[in-house]
């Protein structure tokens, strides 16, 4: 089913949702807390957990100490990596945990790892972190602080095998420009639940790019909020699910400050029996957020029978004084006409399929801005496509 909404100003406050006939609380009313006891263990009947196979991830809801993932880092000059106390993290401006897995990660992680980019620093190389699982239960808690008018790219890669919950907070200073790239290339047995929060400063620019190509279950919640007017947030995503994999990406953009912008664009491909992807995009425009301009888009390409993609865009608007708001969602099968067109020009079927899928993803991968990451991901997508032959 395709859902389309035009990018026009809303005439009045309203809620626009594919679940419009199902009573549900406003996103502004959902629980956030530092206390694990404020989040019951999910049963799967809750709105925010109804797509997730919760029976397979119960270990990540338990208050059980875990290890840290093995970490390798490449840090440009001027950037520091340290640890801080939980109290200092709570006073950093980072949002509170918003679900059971995130609060457990914050509570059970061995420490809070902090990456500091000083004010007015312009990095010419990305900050690179490689986190590798070794089959154990693990918790991660990371805070990225980007100073005023700084410019930086942070690349965070996950691989190996683990049962992993994480909380990642990115606090972007006024006038700063930051890109965070998170790549999930887990083993097929890995479990990964993550909450990624981005706080956009006054007149700052922030991009969050999520790439998920592996893992038995991967569920990422990406939340954006604004610390002042004039901020811009862009969320891009690429995911490719194979047989038996569950990949879930949830976005929440909370427009409270006036004259801010957001753009969300995610694309996914699925192949194989029981491959399942979920994309949920929530945008809240509060009464104080006059002049907001927002749009969200999700596209899914189903390559084989037996795969399922769920796509749920939502707009919740409390003021009519906005520049624009809209969403679009579509899920479809491989376009045989495109294959025929390419084959008619002498291209064999396997190569034609690769070209079509590569083109589907290239518009997002090409905007990552880190050449070696872009090349690596396109090669990984090619390897995923070998399973369709």
From TrEMBL:
Residues 1-29 are annotated as: Disordered. Residues 132-360 form the SUF system FeS cluster assembly SufBD core domain. One of its GO terms (biological process) is iron-sulfur cluster assembly. InterPro entries: Fe-S_cluster_assembly_SufBD, SUF_FeS_clus_asmbl_SufBD_core, SUF_FeS_clus_asmbl_SufBD_sf, SUF_FeS_clus_asmbl_SufD. Pfam families: SUFBD_core (PF01458). Belongs to the iron-sulfur cluster assembly SufBD family. This is Fe-S cluster assembly protein SufD. It comes from Knoellia locipacati.
């Amino acid at each position: 089913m395709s859902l389309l909404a035009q990018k026009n100003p809303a005439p009045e406050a309203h809620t626009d949702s594919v679940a419009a006939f199902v009573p549900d609380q406003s996103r502004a009313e959902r629980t956030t807390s530092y206390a694990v006891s404020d989040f019951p263990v999910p049963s799967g009947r809750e709105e925010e957990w109804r797509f997730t196979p919760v029976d397979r991830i119960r270990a990540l809801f338990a208050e059980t100490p875990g290890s840290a993932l093995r970490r390798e880092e490449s840090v440009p000059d001027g950037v520091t990596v340290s640890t801080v106390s939980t109290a200092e993290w709570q006073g950093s401006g980072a949002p509170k945990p918003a679900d059971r897995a995130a609060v457990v990660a914050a509570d059970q992680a061995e420490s809070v790892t902090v990456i500091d980019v000083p004010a007015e620093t312009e990095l010419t190389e990305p900050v690179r972190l490689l986190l590798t699982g070794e089959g154990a239960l693990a918790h991660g808690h990371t805070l990225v602080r980007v100073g005023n008018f700084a410019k930086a790219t942070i690349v965070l890669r996950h691989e190996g095998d683990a049962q992993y919950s994480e909380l990642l907070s990115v606090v972007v200073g006024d006038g700063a420009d930051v890109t965070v790239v998170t790549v999930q290339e887990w083993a097929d047995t890995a479990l990964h639940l993550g909450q990624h929060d981005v706080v956009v400063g006054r007149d700052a620019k922030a991009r969050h790019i999520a790439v998920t190509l592996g893992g038995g279950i991967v569920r990422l919640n990406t939340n954006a909020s604004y610390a002042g007017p004039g901020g811009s947030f862009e969320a891009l995503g690429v995911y490719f699910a194979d047989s038996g994999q569950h990949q879930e990406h949830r976005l929440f953009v909370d427009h409270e400050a006036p004259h801010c912008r957001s753009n969300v664009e995610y694309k996914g491909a699925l192949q194989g029996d029981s491959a399942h992807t979920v994309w949920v995009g929530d945008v809240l425009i509060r009464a104080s957020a006059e002049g907001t301009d927002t749009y969200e888009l999700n596209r899914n390409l189903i390559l084989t029978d037996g795969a399922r993609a769920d796509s749920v865009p939502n707009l919740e608007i409390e003021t009519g004084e906005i520049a624009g708001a809209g969403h679009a969602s579509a899920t479809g099968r491989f376009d045989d006409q495109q294959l025929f067109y390419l084959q008619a020009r002498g291209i064999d079927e396997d190569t034609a399929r690769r070209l079509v899928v590569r083109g589907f993803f290239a518009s997002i991968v090409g905007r990552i801005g880190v050449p070696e990451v872009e090349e690596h991901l396109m090669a990984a997508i090619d390897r995923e496509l070998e399973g369709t032959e």
